[in-house]
């Protein structure tokens, strides 16, 4: 079971969170094109390996937590707040 | 007691406490501390089950958790549980067990005729046959196959016992309470970390023998002493009868504690079993090993068992499984058994040792006068329902001699128990000296120790355990307090021979329970099932309840020989949890039946109850659905309620609506971005209907939101979407627009609410709230909001209307719900006030053409609902861009319409499809469907809402057919505007 | 008659109370006066604490003069007044933080249950996924989590294994059912 | 070699020495007319129908592991055609028809068992949704019925009607739905394809897709470069990874779905029962194991294993409606990687790259699709154009706003 380090609550069980998908896609500015919004809503890199993603801590502080997790091993490299820059581990993509 | 119980020995049994039990209806007696298997053996019962496919008679193979054969039905009635391993079922007074998978009786099983068919019933048989004629499969062949498969019978009544979950955290989790595990727990505990020691069995000590010496004491005394020491340490939790069965991500382990399985029924308040979630910083796996059987013809005869099972029965339970025993072996462990048998006075007919040379251990036994045949392996067991003799052969297949016996002990070598270590997804590694797979290099914070790591010598197990405990504690951040490992005399074991199968022409079983023979495996290879995973699936090797604990390695050895490749190239199949089977009820815990999900009750639940409401589930909420009068049917009640509201007034509990309190200078801007319509200009004291889209442009939710102050809004959401809307807003404020000054939280359970609707609504409220509230048109116009003091608390009133009547929603704090209801109820008595439920609410809104859950199915656009014009073009909002995609604005999209039943059926039904021609209805000319229906008192007929291609514009006044093949009807309906009733909204003013 | 009873959502107190001499688990219907959710505007967290004269950090609440401050999230607290009743408490707070924060009245949204006794921690472990061992919790320990599928806020006032659970009103009965059912294995009293 | 009563009898009496390999183990040729990447159900079925229906036999199926080791070998084996949206209804019904004749067609007993599938409903709104769906099926010529609680009690006696949190009001039944012995589907198609000349190449991973001048010309594999006139991708959970090799971006996420099997027990449940409101579904295998599952774990994963919270939730769902299974033991549980598309519906289509074709986005429902998927994909590859049955399953539908969203939850694949 994933244990996710919420920046506010500390290490918590996966069961307290709701997964919310890829955190690398950035919502375009309001005046961006339909195409850009389309890519934001639908196109995903879906990597096998490190993935930066959202876990919403609904069973705790209700903060959106950014998590760098490996989709192959389920290992977690880093967690942070929505606007923290979380680099991927060295040498990996 | 019976002759099979030895005079002495049996460290686990208490001879002064006899215990009565029954097996297949016959009464027997055993001792406290016995397992069902040891007690049956003590009574001379060797036949304990039938195999899966051929229904061959079987006795117990092992004395432990790995048992494939002796699986029985325990208990009866609602507590009947299939497939319980007799070898670990603890005996209790009144235990009832039955043999399974046999008819009519264990001794005489009709389906054992399958054995006659056995030349055909090989691996893969099913795939090649039962195809002729085609129509015979389900009604005939499949039924027979299903009935003859499947082992035991489950209960058919609800399980009367309870299960619970429990959680713990530790620095070091030690799995297994054998010598390695005990040593690990002790050294880890001494360094101060929090230690949990879990052991599957009732007794600790694992495979140690009372004849072993540890720290100069008999091993069983050392075990007790060590446990006592551990129990005395505050940082140690000892968990007997607890199987750690699953190794999940991030070092979380799941364990099952069998709290009450060793008693007839759980004591008051106690669960049957407890499922533990253990979060360990570091793990020590000291799970021991499993002995392998040897593969020779008829090796499944009752009385043929594992060498260490024979030893365990003698040493731990004081039972000799036979009076004259043949031992067949590939390694030195057989001689430990021989020694113990000789000491117990049990006769050994011969020991057949596959190895060419006499080992030291063997010579010691030879010196005691036992015949040892070197270079000899078993050929076939003989006998009926119990082994009578064993024929031996040389390694190259020459039959030598046959020895009479009533028990055969097989020492095929040990396989380290790498189950948990491999569950993490890495494959174990072949060790050729050991002739077994050992744990892979850890990828988690874990390490193995003792036999499970491939160390079979007691001294090494103790040392490794000690070191592993220290290492684990150190890794968890606790300073190692060295000390020395418990010591035992190191014994050099001789080599192990790799004998995967012994030559023969008959059935030599590898996987006993699933009746997989050596030939099945070679046949699979011959047919192209070369991969070990293919061979497993084709033959079912290792797929039975024991998951191949005693058989997988042998099967892999045979496959490797057939492929002509070394074992490491073949590899193992994938290890999966659970380590041993776990009751489904334990996973569910408390969350079963009515407790599956918590119930949410509104503050006014009791008021509804008092008025005879029938409640309905709305998500987790319970809401009054309707309030039947005596002798009134559902439909009549709904009709009456919805009619009466428009005539006088009705009161409805609307507390389950989601409520969100929003603060901040940018709250208006925030709402502007969330909703499709504008919010900035909304004045304090006013409410507005709002519609939200998802980012993909489809409608997400709707509700009424009010401005209470410049920087304070109060939002309502639908009951169903309350949580989702809150999450959506948190995303927007935390992730998308952190710069907006906006703060909000749920207020759903702070405020409860009622709607009072109908021409008399104002009068009733005036009477109930009196001077507290100014109800005048000026003070509280349509879409007006007021906060007022009532009864010592703050109340809010919203003049909004879902029903289309003059209506108000009043909110008070949850604690005042009943009082408010009662006040309104009393005030309404002179004004024809009735309570109405969700059904009447639905009728009223359908008559008005207001959309609800049925119309908001996640695939509709605002325009589909006729609300396209609400979409502001003056500001950006979520969903705006993608709502413009060509398919979402296409002309052929279905639009919301009203439908009136004309004729052809008694009623309308949701889910009917709309067609121009009822006789030519198919998916290609399908025009739409009906979403909601009701029997409308105002229209005097059944009406409905639906989505229709072309909408009202194309079909107004036209007749369509509501085709409903499921109900065999296709009534004619007229297409009308969805605003059936009072389209101008005149009634909003009373 | 005004009602601020912690048990409003559970029904009549008389039907809930149960005595057992020396019970290893004690469940207390711990009524309070007022409860609000307090917000600091962005960047005003310190200012709000200063203004109101309390100090909390993530996971650690504080009790002062009958008022308990439970940190929920950055810039968010539950503030519980033991005695001060009614909306007035929230209004006072709101006034105090005007310009730097907001207050949402929540007195009716939750009930408070206090669990203590020899087996209190064992009982908690049956539903609580958090580590409540003395080395991991202790005085001031505050956490929002989920027990028996219900969101709860836990507060441990002292180093003793005694826990205040704040449970949403609508879920109160379901939670109570689970709690008392589970406590039966130890034996419990309700006061 | 053909399986007949006679061959089974003969081999039984002669020690089974004559049974041949079901598929060869050939070395890859330098070039094929068609390469199918992925030896799962869909890939093997595609090869089979290319050979059988279109006479294209110079075909290789390239599988990185052992055939059938992906989702076809780990699914809960349910087949049904109870879909609501027209493209799905027609497509899955085609599949159902192919299932009905499959064993005779490929001379292999895949134990297709039309024991029926029932979806329970618990509220009027849910019922209306199912009625809409059932009618959509009937209007497409597919069997569907609404069954009453009384009929349900008869059909599934262990359903609890007395103490259930969400009272069971009835169900949508498709009697022709049921289960199939999953492994046998892969093996049967493999054997059928092999006997028609298709090369099945195992332990060979495609590492790159070679494109020249906008058209595919071959693949780079762990066994070297293999050229091809056309290439079809049918790699399920790995769709994004393989499509990326050709520069194709997709609305797909890979998620883990768990499955569970109990110890074998005597027949207890004769139909497939799904409890959507509780995220639980169950059937019983011919071997006696209760085979059940629930929702996705709900996070991107390629790990083929899930975690405890979903396990507990799934089994709670079981105990919510069938409390008699409490004492039956879970034997094993595992996971598979779902290629979750952003509307829950699949792709069988051409791609932006000439002669490169996509089959994917099957989510947790592609097993039942296997025959029709292979059949339609073979058609699309052979004709370089979709069949009418799969023309809606394009990549462009998302850009165009013509999603086929059975669940109506939109582009959040973890809840699709
Ligand atoms: C737990 C679970 C339960 C399910 N239950 C059902 C159900 O009840 N009913 C239903 O209809 N569907 C169900 N499904 C879904 C269904 O199993 C899949 O949608 C379907 O099997 C996918 O098609 P496939 O058989 O071709 O996939 P797979 O069998 O996964 O085949 C894809 C193959 O491609 C191979 N591959 C991947 N990358 C490469 C590469 N680079 N080179 C070479 N080969 C590669 C893989 O190794 C794999 O063998 C379930 C799935 C799971 C996991
Ligand atoms: N002579 C030989 O060939 C040979 C071979 C193997 C073992 N042995 C002997 O066996 C002993 C090995 O000691 P050890 O401590 O490594 O192993 P052990 O077998 O003595 O103990 C392992 C213990 O772990 C428990 N266990 C296993 N899996 C578990 C799980 N998942 N959850 C909870 N409990 C679990 C078992 O019930 C058992 O009590 C030594 O005495 C050694 O000499 C001898
Ligand atoms: C329908 C079905 C029935 C199964 N029955 C059994 C079974 O009776 N015994 C068993 O050990 N595994 C059974 N399995 C699980 C497989 O052993 C295996 O776990 C699964 O195919 C996934 O493969 P993997 O575990 O090798 O990754 C079954 C799987 C399926 C799909
Ligand atoms: Zn948190």
Characterise the protein shown here.
- The complex is a heterotetramer of chains A (93), B (990), C (191) and D (416).
- Helices cover 10% and strands 34% of the residues of chain A.
- Chain A has one helix and six strands.
- Chain A has a four-stranded antiparallel β-sheet, with no helix packed on it.
- In chain A, a hairpin with a 5-residue loop joins strand 5 (64-70) and strand 6.
- The mean pLDDT of chain A is 96.
- Chain B is of the alpha+beta class and 990 residues long.
- Chain B is built from 23 helices and 50 strands.
- In chain B, the strands form 13 sheets. In chain B, strands 8, 9, 12, 13, 14, 15 and 28 form a seven-stranded mixed β-sheet that branches.
- The N and C termini of chain B lie far apart (92 Å).
- In chain C, the strands form two sheets. A six-stranded mixed β-sheet of chain C has the order 8-9-10-7-1-11.
- Chain D is 29% helix and 27% strand.
- Chain D has helices at 5-13, 41-54, 86-106, 124-139, 149-155, 182-195, 239-245, 308-321, 370-383, 397-400; strands at 31-37, 59-62, 78-79, 117-121, 145-147, 170-174, 178-179, 199-201, 206-212, 215-221, 224-233, 252-264, 272-275, 280-284, 289-300, 329-341, 347-350, 356-360.
- In chain D, helix 2 runs parallel beside helix 6.
- Chains in contact: A-B, A-C, A-D, B-C, B-D.
- Chains B and D meet through strand 6, helix 2, helix 3, helix 11 and helix 12 of B and helix 1, helix 3, helix 4, helix 6 and strand 12 of D.
- The structure holds flavin-adenine dinucleotide, nicotinamide-adenine-dinucleotide, flavin mononucleotide and zinc ion (ZN).
- Nicotinamide-adenine-dinucleotide is lined by residues 175-181, 198-201, 206-208, 243-244, 286-289, 333, 414, 417, 420, 450-452, 456-458, 461, 493, 579 of chain B.
Can you count the beta strands of chain D? 18
What Rg of chain D is obtained from the alpha carbons, in whole angstroms? Answer: 21 Å
Mean pLDDT rating of chain D = 96
Helical content of chain A stands at under 10%
List keywords for this structure.
heterotetramer; B: 990 residues; alpha+beta; seven-stranded mixed beta sheet; six-stranded mixed beta sheet; 23 helices; C: 191 residues; five-stranded antiparallel beta sheet; 5 helices; 11 strands; binds flavin-adenine dinucleotide; binds nicotinamide-adenine-dinucleotide; binds flavin mononucleotide; binds zinc ion
The gist of it:
The complex is a heterotetramer of chains A (about 90), B (about 1000), C (about 190) and D (about 425). Helix content of chain A is about 10%, strand content about 35%.
